[in-house]
Amino acid sequence: MILDLDIGNTLSKWRLKDTVSSEIRSRGAVWTREEWRPGADIPDLDVVTAVRISSVARKQVLDETVELLRKQVGVVHVAHSTREALGVTCGYEEPQRLGVDRWLGALAGHHLTGGCCSVDCGSAITVDFVLPGGKHLGGYILPGLRLMKESLKLGTRNVAIDPDTEVDTLLAPGRNTVEAVNHGIYMAAVSAVNRLYAEVCDREGVALPLLLTGGDARVVARGLRVPHALWPDMVYAGLEALYPLTAAERAGRLSGAPDQPRVPDLEKLRSGLALTQML
């Protein structure tokens, strides 16, 4: 089995992948601050032959995790953001400062669609752009839905946005404080993604496929004006592309890859952008 780890600052997600069939056998998550001990919420390391890690947690957390895993598993791959990988050139002046989850998302997106706009809707919302030739332009970091809500300190932090709510409802004025907060932060998030996508595509002269991942991707996606695809395993797919360990991965078939989303007509995109700039 292959253990894939996506270690965040607060939550660490994992999955077990069959080395032969490439099927995902199980998934889970634990708080990053907890010590790594196999149990009810953590896979049995006795069945693991290789580990692939993406981590944006503190260096100490990563170092301790790697040290523990290397005592029990023969192969441990730790992803890092680099100047170039898999035909993609990092747009950061200091590539090592780019969050590796963003880098892996960009690599996976480029592998699937060539140029792409990859959006990760987690604690923060990150938006990265890769041109068809593999040039990563850099990106944007915005507070995620929960962070925006917590910053208001209005006692609504634990009232989540229902992802099944009709988008027209989420964009309408709220009729109580909870609705006003939820609808306001939702409007801020989707408006930002819509505008950033249109602005960059206009400036670069190319409409890019739009891919979304992260815990809030489904709800954010419902408010977007352009075609898009959801790819929950996009960070894991970046690990697969960087460290292919199964026959399917070596053949370029990445986990959960969606159908390539169609791209909007660039001139229509520019017309819509021009209208918003007049308002």
TrEMBL record:
Cofactor-binding details, from the entry: A monovalent cation. Ammonium or potassium.
Record-listed ATP binding positions: D6, I7, G8, N9, T10, L11, S12, K13, S123
Key words of the record: ATP-binding, Coenzyme A biosynthesis, Cytoplasm, Kinase, Metal-binding, Nucleotide-binding, Potassium, Transferase
Entry binding sites for substrate: Y92, G99, V100, D101, R102, T177
Organism expressing this protein natively: Cobetia amphilecti
Pathway in which the depicted protein is active: Cofactor biosynthesis; coenzyme A biosynthesis; CoA from (R)-pantothenate: step 1/5
Matches recorded under NCBIfam families: baf
Protein's name in the database: Type III pantothenate kinase
Binding annotation for K(+): D120
Biological function: Catalyzes the phosphorylation of pantothenate (Pan), the first step in CoA biosynthesis.
Gene3D superfamilies: 3.30.420.40
GO biological process: coenzyme A biosynthetic process
Enzyme class, spelled out: transferase
PANTHER family in the record: TYPE III PANTOTHENATE KINASE (PTHR34265)
Location relative to the cell: Cytoplasm
EC number: 2.7.1.33
SUBUNIT field: Homodimer.
Pfam families xref list: Pan_kinase
Keyword DNA damage: no
Catalytic reaction(s) noted: (R)-pantothenate + ATP = (R)-4'-phosphopantothenate + ADP + H(+)
GO MF entries: ATP binding; metal ion binding; pantothenate kinase activity
Similarity remark: Belongs to the type III pantothenate kinase family.
